[in-house]
Fold these 3 entries.
Entry 1:
Amino acid sequence: QQKLSKIQRWEARADTLMKQENFRSSAELYSKILSKSKKKDQKYYLILYKRTLSYYRSEKFELAVKDVNVYLEKNKDSQKAYLLRALINQQLGEEDKLLPDVTRAIELGHVNPQLLRWRATLLFEQGDFIHAKKEFLNLKNFTDDPELEINLALVYRSLNNADSAYICLTKAIELDPKFIGSYVTMASFCLDDENYEAALSYLNQALKIDPANGTILFYKGVALVELKQIDKGCSCLRKALDAGEEDAVDYLKEYC
């Protein structure tokens, strides 16, 4: 009884350390509790999960993934554990391991727009554009915002459906006329399609919102150079370089 009471005190102390964001110390104390555990029961795995969180928050990702793997062996229906493992593997750069865990987390829990967006993004990054489109369109049943429309535009672009891509970007601008990303993406599409006048129009709108944005200045410089307005283009490219946009260097060398 005395030993159990001591362990309970250790757990309470470790939980307090977690709340205080002293994750290294909480992990050490949870480890101490686990070392004293005589059986791997439900309580054992609860402490193991808490240690996983402590390792994750203290950026000890290798130790965290080992813990969560053990936890999931005995808790195969734990949504939070699959989600945590995805977050850990994301930090470890194990991109190929993310989609199965995010999908399993979605299957085990209520429909969460953030998880749906993450899965759609992972599908897109893996080149599965058909399923990514389906996911992003499904997500629009729950929410809509410029970033979602931009993501959908990128999917349509990858599927060689330029008209739908432009429609999505137009919708993105309508949803939030001050969101820079919509104009930049629209301009980049216009540049790719050699529609330099249209690109310039969107870039000028963006510069009204953020006059010192290096990416916008770079794209404007490119558009102007392609329109044979070399002096104006070079001026923008120099400003872009001053703003930290290193892609401007090659254009400056070639045209200025």
Note: The two ends are 82 Å apart (CA to CA).
Entry 2:
Amino acid sequence: VLCCDNELTKAGRESLQERVLMKLNVADRDEIEEAAEITIDTKQIERMLSSGSLIEKELALRYTPMIKGNSEFVHRTLIANLRSSPHSRHQSAAMDALRAAPRALALLTIADTDVICAKASGSERNIRIAAIKLLGEMPDDEQVHLTLLQAIQDARKTQGREAEMFEAAKAISKHSKGTPRLRSTVLELVKQEMPVPGSFGSNLEQSNFTSLLHVVESFSGIYDANIASSLLRLGEDYRTPEAIRRHSLRVFGRLSEPTG
């Protein structure tokens, strides 16, 4: 696929590459890591990156994590393209590729983190989501935590950004286990978003609340009797939308202090 048979026409080659990109775009990290058994040559990646084809360049970025034994090259290549590319697909591809390259992630600098955090509040949706997902895989850091919390605050105010809210919630859940301050902030947001009895808000408000409950489901060893009581009422109310009822009862169990 990387070489793309020379007998193919340009249109045929780009069609094949586009199909591969579609598969890589929906692949999760485990699938990418399984595919990483393939060995790719750095010179081939460099050639594709310098080609005039936008599709070929994106394909090269998404295959870069498959380079073996050269984390410095992977880190340098992906960060350089994240910083310099004017194309949103290339920027999001670089961040997706970084998620699939743990050794390259370990080489991120403070300046790299600044760039990634800035992307999480950018103007283009695919870049914001890629940045939020990447922040979920990065080491615990106050700037990372604050950026994810801000992403939740921004998404909860705007219709059509439910996917960002959900990804930010998943990312925060990965960081919250060892960060009491972050867990406290999330619980405060749950209190703010708690539906009023008999009135469950707009679809956006319901989606936001469910995403926050998803975060709290990952907590352990933290108890809040007031929130637990409110969630139990929601779970027992037949008028409560099904998604909120289900998550409310799960989180009630998390936040209720064991007895006996």
Note: Residues 1-5 have pLDDT under 50 and may be disordered.
Entry 3:
Amino acid sequence: LMASDRKRTPSSRWSKDDSWLGLDKAINEKWGINKIVGPELKEFYSEMNDYSSIFLMANNPDNSQAWKSEPYEKAPYRDERTYLKTLSKSGISQHIPAYMALVQRIEKYNPDLRTKVVPAFLKNFVYMWMRYRSIPSLSLTLKAAFTGGNIYTLSSSKEGWVWKIHQCFRERSDEDVITDDDINGIIQLPLEAEPLDKDKWPWHADSEVWKDLNKGQTKKNNDISMLLFSYERASEGKTNPTMARLHSPSKPQIEHVLPEN
């Protein structure tokens, strides 16, 4: 429901407990008073099927058959899969509604843009979460810049990320073409979560914060996974590396280890 921008009210989303009510409402609207299975209802079920497949690709990349099938096992989709793996292994799900909306709408209206827009959007989400959530979680001096709930609000609000994605990727006339500014606006959506005073959260290589990460506290596997997976990807440099050691059937092969003491 979030990914399709179907809301309880114009400014509030369906809660998890009420999601079946929202789905039933959407079905009844397509069903009509004559209870006829027309093209609108068929299209709605087709859309649900699309979202289900995309959800599996995002929620558990290792077990999604799509990543082992045409065309997604090909090189142009590697970064998309790697960033999804990084987020899922770090216990993060807040990106999924916007990701589902982005993939479904691009595949429907601008499929040639998927390998440009989607991995760039996910890369920004990984950066934003790592700098302002994972690193503060591992630090004794930094505080998180936002909550998971804040991201859901940015994504599902009245004119939030999902709404903007639907407005960008849609049926257009010959005169109403999608522009580079439109595309860049979607890619940069995750950066809307950045605080105005972002310098409080270090990002430069020689920061004193790095040497004290995860000291004096319980080991936080999700946040450590975010740092290690992100470093592995960044160290490759080039676009769409295979990252076979991260996507192997067994446990990921990580070469860089953070000390526990």
Note: The chain is about 50% helix and 0% strand.
